[in-house]
Design goal:
The protein has two domains: 4-192, NAD(P)-binding Rossmann-like Domain (Rossmann fold); 202-337, N-(1-d-carboxylethyl)-l-norvaline Dehydrogenase, domain 2 (Orthogonal Bundle). The chain is 50% helix and 11% strand. It has helices spanning 4-9, 27-38, 50-59, 80-84, 99-106, 131-139, 153-157, 171-181, 194-216, 221-241, 252-263, 268-277, 282-286, 294-308, 314-324, 329-337, and strands at 19-23, 42-46, 75-77, 89-92, 115-118, 145-148, 162-167, 186-191. Strands 3-2-1-4-5-6-7-8 form an eight-stranded mixed sheet, sandwiched between helices. Strand 2 (42-46), helix 3 and strand 3 form a beta-alpha-beta unit. The longest helix has 23 residues, at 194-216. The radius of gyration is 20 Å and the shape is globular. It starts with a helix and ends in a 10-residue tail after the last helix.
């Protein structure tokens, strides 16, 4: 249950209420929708599964957020038209592999001046587009805002202190989203580097899989620290090659999200890696999971993207070989450790 004191802290006086649509009623989508309601906004949330929408409306609960009561005024529907029509802010929170499909379903009902926010983290498999690029393509508009950072949905919805980044080349749009979400327990920073923010949010899931595999192999804390640090170097190399500011990866959407996802007990990607490190195949580890581990999809996309721009990403390559080529996890780690010696920094 939400603590009353934290709920009280998140109420904001003098806020102009906005009509908001949240597309995706998984844990992250529901937590963001709840945050917007408690900031004083009118919010409708779209759920792919009708039973998820029914539970939100009838009991203010969500099966992806165990033990949480959502804001009573949050309205859910499995009809995307009912959710998007009239919305001034539209927040995309679908899994990356269906973000384009969800955006296309919403497009006919989107107001011309609506602000589009992307909270999904991933890289589209066939186009290798970031999620804000997918939204910009479907909605045929500039100024899409990406939000990312170190966030576990279960902590956000309980009002525990959290900080994220709203990124857009149009800083005025980023600032509007900052005002929409910002509160005493949910701090929002702005910056213009959309590329760095989105790549950090996507590729860190691959690194979480890798560190989970190392944990499953019981390789110790030294190995985990090395994987996190070298993973950050890989993310930064890829980002810089694609035009990102390297400083972004030292921030919330870079090292902040990376550390949380690689070490936090609530991390789905880390937990999946642990099971694989303990001997399960990918299919066995995925069996019975209702939630998406984005790192699996992003491993394919990140490898393809790194090859496109000729960036070396040995941890991504190792994760790919374990997930999709049948290499034994311990052998992949040995190969990483036996790479030729080199300088730590690429100058």
């Amino acid at each position: 249950m939400r603590h009353r004191s934290l709920n009280h802290l998140t109420q904001r006086k003098g806020l102009v209420a906005m009509n908001c649509a949240v597309l995706g009623a998984g844990a992250w989508g529901a937590s963001l929708a709840d945050r917007l309601v408690r900031n004083g906004h009118s919010v409708r949330i779209w759920a792919y599964e009708p039973d998820v929408a029914d539970l939100i409306n009838s009991s203010h609960t969500n099966r992806f957020l165990d033990g949480v009561v959502l804001a009573p005024s949050l309205v859910a529907s499995s009809e995307i038209k009912d959710v998007v029509t009239g919305a001034e802010f539209v927040v995309l929170v679908a899994p990356s592999h269906v973000t384009r499909v969800v955006a296309e379903a919403a497009q006919p009902y989107l107001m011309r001046d609506a602000v589009v926010v992307v909270a999904s983290k991933g890289i589209e498999q066939h186009t290798l587009a970031r999620m804000s690029q997918v939204a910009a393509d479907v909605f045929d508009r500039d100024g899409v805002v990406a939000i990312s950072g170190p966030t576990f949905a279960a902590e956000v919805v309980r009002g525990q202190p959290t900080a994220i980044v709203a990124a857009c080349a149009d800083l005025a749009a980023a600032e509007r989203v900052q005002q929409l979400f910002h509160g005493p327990s949910f701090r929002v920073y702005t910056q213009p580097d959309v590329i760095g923010v989105e790549l950090g949010g996507a590729v860190k899931n691959v690194m979480a899989l890798a560190t989970g595999i190392a944990e499953g192999l019981e390789l110790g804390f030294n190995a985990r620290a090395a994987l996190i640090t070298r993973g950050l170097a890989e993310m930064t190399r890829l980002g810089v090659a694609l035009g990102a500011d390297p400083a972004t990866f030292a921030g919330l959407a870079g090292v902040g999200d990376l550390v949380l996802t690689c070490t936090g007990l609530l991390s789905r990607n880390r937990a999946l890696g642990v099971e694989i490190g303990r001997g399960k195949t990918l299919d066995e580890a995925l069996r019975g999971r209702e939630t998406v581990a984005e790192g699996v999809i992003t491993t394919r996309s990140a490898k393809a993207l790194s090859e496109r721009v000729s960036v070396t990403m040995p941890i991504v390559d190792a994760a790919f070989s374990v997930l999709f080529e049948g290499e034994a996890p311990r052998d992949a780690i040995v190969e990483l450790m036996n790479r030729d010696p080199r300088p730590e920094r690429d100058d």
